[in-house]
Design goal:
By secondary structure, the chain is mainly alpha-helical. The chain folds into 2 domains: 209 residues, Endonuclease III, domain 1 (Orthogonal Bundle); 59 residues. It is built from 14 helices and no strands.
């Protein structure tokens, strides 16, 4: 039986059921508080909005989707299928995203794909159906199932925030990989989607607390100061070793110059004396 998270009451009931079945989630709920239900538009428009936002900031994704959805209003797969690629490109879509949207639009138009029926399928089966589409990866598929269709068992195993939240909340040695996330969430079937909402809320609560600690550590000047002091001390020692050699060199050179000047002066004085003596003798002869 597929559980749907269509209202906040649905999510509340699912979270309480999870805590009763897995006591480890009790402290997680106490820290996170009851998560708020988040939903997006279903159908082609909802999937297209997620595709437009792939690998973009929230602000950039919202701006591009705003232009796309306004240009094609109402947003229908037949319209996108017929739209020129250069027109879509001018709205901010990359070539890869244009190719993905057009492929999905063709699949819907040719009735090879039915997005509405995915809400009633097993989460793993629905996930496999979506990831077979060009440009739809595991994360995009799970986000669509969870937020657009309200699938109660959709499990975004590749979401880094959920992985990190589970590492902290379950006391794991390291952040679990995508492969490790599957068995970890197995006890929460068929409410893995509700568990995802809980772990996201827990992540935001923990991040807010850890952010202060991380910020303080980042601004601490002690480690750099030690390195700087060590470098300065080493430099001073090097200079101290070199200094004695420099004055001696300068002093010796000055000594040599002074001796040379004295020698020249003495020689000059001697020559002058000789000239005077020679002049006296010459005068005596005369």
């Amino acid at each position: 039986m597929t559980v749907h998270l269509d209202t906040q009451a649905d999510l509340d009931d699912a979270i309480h059921a999870l805590v009763r079945s897995d006591p480890r989630l009790g402290p997680v709920l106490e820290t996170a508080g009851m998560p708020a239900l988040r939903r997006r538009e279903p159908g082609f428009a909802g999937l297209a909005a997620i595709v437009c936002g792939q690998q973009l900031s929230t602000k950039a994704a919202a701006a591009i989707w705003g232009r796309v959805s306004t240009t094609f209003d109402p947003f229908h797969h037949d319209v996108v299928k017929k739209a020129r690629a250069d027109r879509l490109g001018r709205l901010g879509l990359s070539a890869a995203k244009i190719k993905s949207l057009k492929f999905i639009a063709r699949e819907l138009s040719d009735e090879r794909l039915n997005l509405d029926v995915l809400a009633e399928e097993d989460a793993d089966t629905a996930h496999a159906t979506l990831t077979r589409l060009h440009g739809i990866g595991p994360w995009t598929a799970d986000i669509y199932l969870l937020f657009c269709l309200g699938h109660g068992d959709a499990w975004p195993a590749g979401d880094l925030a959920i992985q990190e939240a589970m590492r902290i909340g379950l006391g794991l040695k390291s952040r679990p990989t995508v492969k490790e996330m599957q068995p970890l969430a197995e006890p929460w079937r068929p409410l893995r989607g509700a568990a995802a909402h809980l772990w996201w809320s827990y992540y935001h609560a923990i991040k807010k607390r850890e952010g202060v600690i991380a910020g303080a550590a980042a601004t601490s000047p002690k480690p750099p100061a030690k390195k700087t002091l060590a470098k300065k001390t080493l430099a001073n020692r090097t200079i101290a070793k070199k200094k004695p050699a420099q004055p001696k060199s300068v002093s010796n050179s000055k000594g040599v110059l002074n001796k040379s000047r004295v020698a020249k002066s003495s020689a000059k004085t001697a020559k002058t004396a000789l000239r005077k003596t020679a002049a006296k003798k010459a005068g005596a002869r005369k």
